[in-house]
Specification:
155 residues, Immunoglobulin-like, 4-stranded mixed beta sheet, 8 strands, 26% helix, globular
Length: 155
């Protein structure tokens, strides 16, 4: 009986090690580009704030026509990639470098169509993003999104 228990313990130990070594699969998040958000806000990313882990992807969907998604100059972490989708283009971005990434719809940037992606719960570059000058409506909206990351929200 003791030999059976020993074998079982060895098996359980090996199985737990395999489970820890198995890579977690990356998740894909979707952000819709819409003319009107759920709260009535015109020209909106839904959701406008997304918290992901390194290796995850975000797919920007042109739900309504006339929108694009692109990173905002100086609003990506050091070593992070920027992106620029064309108008009406579905674009998928993989995030590997932790930090905050600001993004916009270029045609509706001045109207406040901006968003924020938090990668790996890392907010180290928040102060740098706060210092980036944006059009007034975009700035106001971005500060609302900064508040979400400060509060630890995930959506």
């Amino acid at each position: 009986m003791e030999e059976i228990l020993n074998k079982f313990a060895q098996f359980a130990f090996l199985a737990s090690g395999l489970m820890l070594a198995a890579p977690a699969s990356a998740a894909d998040y979707e952000v819709q580009m819409v003319n009107q958000g759920p709260g009535g806000q015109l020209m909106h990313f839904e959701p406008a704030f997304v918290s992901v882990m390194p290796g995850d992807t975000v797919t920007f969907l042109p739900t309504d026509k006339g929108h694009n998604s692109e990173s905002i100059l100086d609003m990506t972490p050091d070593g992070g990639s920027s992106w620029k989708g064309r108008t009406n283009e579905k674009i998928t971005v993989t995030f590997t470098v932790p930090g905050l990434y600001g993004f916009k719809c270029q045609p509706h940037f001045a109207m406040g169509m901006v968003g924020l992606i938090e990668v790996g719960h890392d907010t180290e570059n928040l102060n740098a993003l706060v210092g980036v000058r944006l059009p007034p409506r975009a700035q106001a909206r971005m500060f609302e999104l900064f508040a979400k990351t400060i509060r630890g929200e995930t959506k």
